[in-house]
């Protein structure tokens, strides 16, 4: 059993690689951030769950990383003509996911149930679960005041300077059943923290009570793949946010952030020079975190599978010794 | 001022003709049945309002009469793939109308306000109003029990035999402001009961308290155009329902149904032979309802405008005579 923790595009890519690298894809559970979820036009939208689901079903738009390949925008164009809110891009096919999710949630089903059902319908061979079934909402604290996540991320295009983040509802949320079971499963072989934004995508998952402790205690190695390469985020505002929060935008800073729960850290070749410092940092120079250098940039499906296979192999090494 | 009462496709066609025939289209108010409205997939759907709005904006699908021309179905196909309910055909562009209407109604706006705004956005030069702002729901009483309207009309394709109809909520509804104002307006020149289904489309409007009395009392002539031609409905189940209710499916039976409020009745050429009987029926043979014979079948935009012009001219005769 492999447990992957993921946010949006970058995380989904590695999750797709893990799914492809495993002989039995059903052994993979990808647990996804839902702090970005929001209500829009009366619909319950779960952007990261959808990105992961579409990517693992092979339907993601390869150009954007989010949304569906070959999508059309007739609904949104018509909505704009009616004076409706068109700042959040909802494609015609994508809309079906939101409408059906909303209908089922209103009918009393859990987000876990809806997620697993929709992903099965779309032909995903591995398992996907939300981090929790309760409502958690990421609030971005900026110079201009608090912003709901999508307001910051899409409407304001990550422009306001971030001063802090909080995850409303996280303290009273509970890990989803699949998530908690995986963490407690003796068959768990590795936890992979995907190359997602540490602040926006992984922190909300870690904010659910019990997650951090379970990761620290679990017998399986916890391996993170750096989303920062050469001081830059491959996608999204991770580097910008780190700088705004007074943290150096580097793979080393990401390793530090996860240090208490990490066994292994995967660094891009570009950052090879940081490996020694990351391994010997903390605990008076004693090696606490093993570092592996890989080509982490995933352009093709082959890149994903190769990186995933290397991460799994690294975890095996850590497990054995 | 001209007031038209309409349901779906047939009514919308004559309303479009009236709009085209009038020098100042803003003088036309089309009041539309909302008994067919329903909630579906969390959306508030008003099929007759949309048919009238799309027709009067020149955007209706000319093949079906309902929906938008050049519509695409990517949303619905995707919904079907997710196992969602796809029995009610929602096109990608049409969906924007429902999403925006639902959003605005939830925000507390009236259906009248939303309707007039959306129709203006779509470029409709005349005015459109719902019969009322309250929720009225047509229930079809059948051999197999009560059916919500769309369940009967779309899902069951009008197959169950109708034993009766009721309009839940009608007794406590109030005419929409535009409707009540038009009926009380001394400038009202004619009321046109469009060739819509008398049972499913016009009766719900007549069931709103005060409507029937206002039509009987109003100084302007009330003229109906028969939706039954040669014993058949041009579209929809009107003839079938009349037979199931033990009423002869004929233009004469339609005239009888409206007799208490009618001044004029427009009959198709096919039914020319019924004119005398309709004029002399009731009141011991005294002429109560004037009959005009016209070509009422509207294939083209020209047909609509010509019929509308003849109806307006007929009303003028009745007013002056």
Please provide a brief summary of the model.
Chain A is 40% helix and 18% strand. In chain A, helix 1 packs parallel to helix 2. Chains A and B meet through helix 3, helix 4 and helix 5 of A and helix 3, helix 4 and helix 5 of B.
User: How many separate domains make up the residues of chain A?
Assistant: 1
Helical amount of chain A: 40-55%
Order of helices and strands of chain A: EHEEEHHHHEEEHEHEHHEEEHHEHEH
**In percent terms, what proportion of residues of chain A is strand?**
15-25%
Structural class of chain A: alpha/beta
Biggest sheet: strand arrangement of chain A: 5-2-1-9-10-13-14
Query: Based on the structure given, which CATH architecture of chain A is correct?
Result: 3-Layer(aba) Sandwich
What is the CATH topology of chain A? Answer: Rossmann fold
What's the β-strand tally of chain A? 14
- Kindly, what is the distance between the CA atoms of the first and last residues of chain A, rounded to a whole number of angstroms? 19 Å
General description of the model:
The structure is a homodimer of 321-residue chains. Helices cover 40% and strands 18% of the residues of chain A. The first copy, chain A, has 321 residues and is an alpha/beta fold. The first copy, chain A, has one domain (2-136, 166-320): Rossmann fold, CATH 3.40.50. In chain A, the strands form four sheets. A seven-stranded parallel sheet of chain A has the order 5-2-1-9-10-13-14, sandwiched between helices. A three-stranded antiparallel sheet of chain A has the order 7-6-8. In chain A, a hairpin with a 2-residue loop joins strand 11 (228-229) and strand 12 (232-233). The two termini of chain A are 19 Å apart.
